[in-house]
Amino acid sequence: MKSFAALLLVPVMAAATVPSATTPPAYAKRWPLILAAGDGGAYRVTLSPEVYATAATLDLRDVAVLDADGQEVAAAVLGPEAQEARPIASVAVPWFVLPSTSASGDTTLRLSARFDDNGRILQLHTDASPAMPAGAATGGLLVDLSSVREGVQALEIDWQAGAPFEAHYRVESSFDLQAWESVHARSTLLDLQRDGERLRQNEILIPGGLRYLRLLPLTAHAAVPITAVRARLDRQYFEQHRSSVELQGRRMRADAGDAFVYQNTGRYPAAQATLRSDDAALGQWTLASRNTQDASWRFRAGPWVAWQVGGAQRSESPPQALHGAPVRDGEWQLSSNGPLPSQAPRLRLLYRPEVLVFLAQGRPPYMLVAGSGQAARTPAPIPALVQALRSQRGGNWQPTPAYLGVSSVLAGAQALQPPAPQRDWKTWLLWALLAGGAATVAGFALSLLKKPTGGTA
Fold first, then answer.
1. Where are the domains of the chain?
2. Which of 34, 252, 289, 389 has the fewest Cβ atoms nearer than 10 Å?
3. H or E stretch including 226?
4. Cα pseudo-dihedral 142, 147, 150, 154, rounded to 10
5. Do β-strands 42-46 and 400-404 pair in parallel, antiparallel, or remain unpaired?
């Protein structure tokens, strides 16, 4: 009976050993996501070299987005040429009306604000001194560009239709609302009408990289009834953006002779390759790659000629398109039809960063996570979902930009370990029950054989 009772404990022990299915998978790193606007519906974030260096899988299925509760939201990694990944034309930005200032520009305007962790203004306090004389210009405008990190070309300002006007402003920029630098000495907004014709100027060109802008009126004029301010983005900047990673090789013995072998540092979607050399070298090169050391080499480019004839300037071969691009393999091999130079040329892989598009589900803030030997992003029909949003918000609608914040370590390298082999507890338990039953039957049979049998007189 004791043996039978112990056997009944096997399912309980097995259940205690199996990990909880509700435990979220571990990731190596996380990045807070900075949203350019709070009501985007869907967002697009360009993957950085650090994300590619952290991801472990060839298809980037271990790159995902989590909400504030740690729940995964619908997301997909798309190529930069995908319709859903194209950059938005403009994005609405926060703006504040400033108090009236002197038309001569000699009024001190003091600003203080409460910010969030990313520099967005949550509350603005203003103080203009001295008091405004009669005939002073109307108030200016403060524009918060802190949530738009790149590609800004201009401000687009909308106002209510009404009486014609022409307003001139001095445009200044600041990173802390205290020290200001001139951007434009004189910029004009106007809305004029004559004989049924309308002349409207609502753009102010600005350089990229600015955080806060203020528009201070230069002349007395009636208040402009502003309704919206947008940052116009340079689509060409995003479409032409290229990244690269440079790899250093080592000489190794290959099947067809010596070659240079390069270890990749991330899952970059390489589309082209070039060679850089400081050594006097001439060669006709062929490039191959493979994902693991036990896999076969696959041809990627070549043969092409790269040379360095001496001198101080480093040479670089023209870019070569890679066969089967994009290629994320972990190991690359460069071979030549002639003798190898003493120094390995540096292999530079060129690529266009991909875009992760995700829906604004759950509670913000959101974070991007990457690097896992166990996690797999749940497949989501992002193109269809984006099209549904576009049908609600207009045919030209695109996902709003989001940007990667500073990364932090989660589980680190431990998250990259593959999952432990799954044990079929049901099968083992069944065999244990069968073995226990067989042992019980055998023991019962032996006990019967050992009992003495009664004889006849």
1. 2-18+422-443, 29-86+359-416, 91-238, 245-351
2. 252
3. strand 226-233
4. -30
5. parallel
Closest CA relative to residue 350, chosen from 275, 285, 294: 275
Instruction: Out of 1.25.40, 3.30.420, 2.60.120, 1.20.1070, select the CATH number for domain 91-238.
Output: 2.60.120
Match 């301010």 to its residue by tokens: 229
Neighbours of 36 (CB within 10 A): 23
- Torsion angle defined by CA atoms of residues 278, 283, 289 and 292, in that order, rounded to the nearest 10 degrees: -70
Query: In this structure, are residues 271 and 325 in contact, taking their beta carbons and an 8 Å threshold?
Result: yes
**Rounded Cα gap, residues 62 and 43, in angstroms:** 19
- Is residue 438 within 8 Å of 80, Cβ to Cβ? no
Task: Note the pLDDT tens digit of each residue in 168-198.
Answer: 999 999 999 999 999 999 999 998 988 778 8
User: Residue 125 corresponds to which amino acid?
Assistant: H
The H or E element containing residue 157 is: strand 152-159
Q: Are the C-beta atoms of 368 and 45 separated by less than 8 Å?
A: yes
Rounded Cα–Cα distance for residues 247 and 264 (Å): 7
pLDDT for residue 445: 60
Cβ-Cβ contacts under 8 Å for 315 (sequence gap 6 or more): 276, 277, 306, 307, 308, 309
**Is-contact 358 65, C-beta < 8 A?**
yes
The SS3 assignment for 100 reads: coil
Residues in the chain, pLDDT under 70:
1-25, 101-108, 128-138, 254-256, 279-283, 306-315, 419-432, 435-439, 441-457
- Paired with 128 in beta bridges are 109
Exposed (0-12), middle (13-18) or buried (19+): which is 43, by Cβ within 10 Å?
A: buried
- Written out in words, the top-level CATH class of the domain with range 245-351 is mainly beta
Q: Give residue 209's region: left, alpha or beta (phi > 0; psi -120 to 50).
A: left
- Burial code (b: 16+ CB inside 10 Å, e: under 16) for 344-355 equals bbbbbbbbbbbb
* E-assigned strand segments in 360-412: 367-370, 400-404, 408-409
**Those residues with Cβ within 8 angstroms of residue 393's Cβ, 6 or more apart along the chain or in another chain:** 41
Domain 91-238 shares a fold with domain 245-351: yes
For residues 106 and 133, give the distance between their C-alpha atoms in angstroms, rounded to a whole number.
12
Q: What is the pLDDT of residues 16-62, one digit of tens each?
A: 333 333 445 689 999 999 998 878 889 999 999 999 999 999 999 99
